[in-house]
Amino acid sequence: MTADPYQTRVSSVETLLPRPDPVVFGEHGPLEPEQLKRYDTDGYLVLEELFDRQVVGEALGELEHLVALEGNREDPRFIWEPGSTQLKSIFEIHRISEFFRRLIGDTRLTGRAAQILGSEVYVHQTRVNLKPGFDGTDFYWHSDFETWHAEDGMPTPRALSVVLALTENLPINGPLMVIPGSHRTFVSCTGETPEANYRTSLVRQEIGLPSQQTLSRLAELGGVVQCLARPGTAIVFDSNLMHGSTGNITPFPRQSLFVVFNSVENALSEPFSAPARRPEFLAARDFTPLG
């Protein structure tokens, strides 16, 4: 059996490991060679106003409808801000909403994902983060792949996220922040994964987080960039890129659609460092490629 090059949550010592896998797997597609090169180097791309205001308006209208649905307090896919009546996130939104299912399958998203990943892709996870005004809490620095590997059984970081801005992502309302180049270093985190860790981590993640010393080292090498975006702009970033966001104490919500595309050649196995699989609304096990 081949040794796991991305071991994490198995030691009391944090380790920084060079990424053995490529970042960009494909060549031909809608992205220009210079964009692919930038993605390979930095780990992310900002695609200005990929969708027009009409699509964004329809998305916001559908989101308003979903927020008002009766019974969403009992639905585990609806995550609430701590001690608040404000929604934090809605997961598996492409299963809840036909509009978002069609939007997520748009070739403007799937074509770029397939080009970067060099294969057909399927949806690993979807959600809307609402980051409400005044109550929007922070998302601490983390690598998504560390969690997906440890808790979902994703073998390698051959996956990416697309963040579609539905409102203005301003410097003041908690925009996505990234550390360019950090996707080429895998941070093997300390500690063990508690049973059903997702129940608390969706509200505030505490397991699988890098130390301040490691974050400082990565930031010294790559800096920290705020991904500001007008509505309709898409931010594409590698699954191992270190990212986070501050809280939002302004009146202006920061609402964004998140879609995680995984290569069909990188389908999930059993969790590498967790006692059991997470629910399918967090880690889909239908590996059917998107048309």
From TrEMBL:
MF terms (GO), sorted A to Z: oxidoreductase activity
Pfam families, sorted: PhyH
Catalytic activity: L-ectoine + 2-oxoglutarate + O2 = 5-hydroxyectoine + succinate + CO2
Cofactor(s) required, per the database record: Fe(2+)
InterPro entries referenced in this protein's UniProt entry, alphabetically: EctD, Phytyl_CoA_dOase-like
Keywords: Dioxygenase, Iron, Metal-binding, Oxidoreductase
EC number: 1.14.11.55
Keyword match Iron: yes
Enzyme class, UniProt record, top EC level: oxidoreductase
Family: Belongs to the PhyH family. EctD subfamily.
Quaternary organization: Homodimer.
Function: Involved in the biosynthesis of 5-hydroxyectoine, called compatible solute, which helps organisms to survive extreme osmotic stress by acting as a highly soluble organic osmolyte. Catalyzes the 2-oxoglutarate-dependent selective hydroxylation of L-ectoine to yield (4S,5S)-5-hydroxyectoine.
Identification of the protein by name: Ectoine hydroxylase
Species name: Dactylosporangium roseum
